[in-house]
Amino acid sequence: MVVAGLTGGIATGKSTVTALLASFGAAVIDADRIARDVVVCGRPAWQKIVEHFGPGVLRPDGELDRERLGGVIFSDKVQKDILNRIVHPEVFREMDRRIRELGEENRADVVICDVPLLIETGMHRGFDEVVLVYVPEPIQIRRLMDRDGISRDEAVRKVRAQMPIEEKKAYATIVIDNSASREETAGKVLQAYQYLQERAAEEKCKGKR
How many whole angstroms separate alpha carbon 89 and alpha carbon 69? Predict the structure, then answer.
């Protein structure tokens, strides 16, 4: 089994590429979805968040008020780092559990872990391959403006609040350029998937020796 971490930037089309990989047969683990699951009321991460940030970040039903919590950490890097230190380890543990489960049940040769902050958290070091969904910054900005109906200044601010996409390329072992049509992207994604399948087959052969 080959386990690849997949990342990108805002408006690069990461969801499109992930969906294509799943359609070709890859098992996909979504870190964002796991991050939502691990902070459900009563879970260990939820308890730590309430202990640190107080009950003011909760909705009446006891679940996290994401908008209110976001307001607390938005302009406070220290508080944001504290939140990440609470949530990220729980996300990583759950991802590891799911990867082990897939391996034990032999359900997939290729596993894709969709992790938005893959490189920023240093998590990329733990994967067999690092897949980057890439478009040049000007296309990111234009697509973000079209997608969210925002001004160019706002789109630039959001794009540049992230790690530059060109900088991320240095960490990637596979770059999928999503600048052109969906059909062209699908062809590139299929090539990447076939490469990962071949690598998984090689690893399987090594294991049998």
Answer: 19
